[in-house]
What we know:
Blueprint: E1 12-20, E2 23-31, E3 38-42, E4 45-49, E5 54-55, E6 57-61, E7 67-70, E8 75-79, E9 86-88, E10 91-93, E11 98-107, E12 111-121, E13 127-131, E14 142-144, E15 146-150, E16 156-159, E17 165-168, E18 174-176, E19 186-189, E20 197-200
Amino acid sequence: WVANGYTSQKAGTWTVTGNYSGKGGTATLTVTAAAIHHLGLLPLTATITADQTQRYTAETRDQYDNKVGDVTASTIFSICPGAKGSWAKNVYTPEKVGSWIVTGNYTTNVTMLATASLTVTVGALYQIKVLPATTNVTAIGSVNFSAYGYDRKGNERGDITTIATWTSDAPGIASVESKGQANPGRATGYKAGTAKITAAMAG
Length: 203
């Protein structure tokens, strides 16, 4: 306010109140968005797992960040190349874990760009890899195996050696210690032959 002059910023419908000598009165003021000034993306920040998707909205806004219009359908969305994944218009399907920048590109008579931050975390356990994949051991000798979990997109969930259930398909040839034992993943050979060592997780 400057005296009885009001400079607006936020769009909306507001109540203006005046008081004089203990008496008051009100008026209704509706503020609409000004001319297009820049582009904005929603959500500005988001976190999803690699199993989920993220939908974006693009808006033109005035200089006070009031929404002028929804231009999602006319905006081209992209993400950092290292994130990989894919777009179906304004919906992103992730691939790589990490923190990434999403960019919206809207062009009319001028080009407007806006960015948002997206964090992708590892998805649910989908695959287990056992290392080494192939090895030899002498009778009464032993070898330590390690197990690593991965989500559906190939992002590593970490070392699960000590919490995995280990089994041998030929325990007479080689046995393996499982979770709850002294050395999960340690296989001991007993006689010549081939045994398949497997690591598994419930669910």
